[in-house]
Amino acid sequence: xxxxxxxxxxxxxxxxxxxxxxxxxxxxxxxxxxxxxxxxxxxxxxxxxxxxxxxxxxxxxxxxxxxxxxx
Length: 71
Description:
By secondary structure, this protein is mostly helical. Helices cover 70% and strands 11% of the residues. It has three helices and two strands; from the N terminus they run ααββα. The protein has helices spanning 3-22, 26-29, 44-69; strands at residues 32-35, 40-43. A two-stranded antiparallel sheet has the order 1-2. Strand 1 (32-35) and strand 2 (40-43) form a beta hairpin. The mean pLDDT is 96.
């Protein structure tokens, strides 16, 4: 499958996420979910911050690979 397929899916997912986040109240951002691997509850504002960091981390990997390979 061409990489563009995955990029299109990711773009659509981010559009939905942005729309959802823009409409969330402070109370909703403070809701939690339990992460079984970490054995603790995470507030949604913390999960969103981790997602943002993780996305930037992956982007940095791709950028470095492109630079290293001259793409």
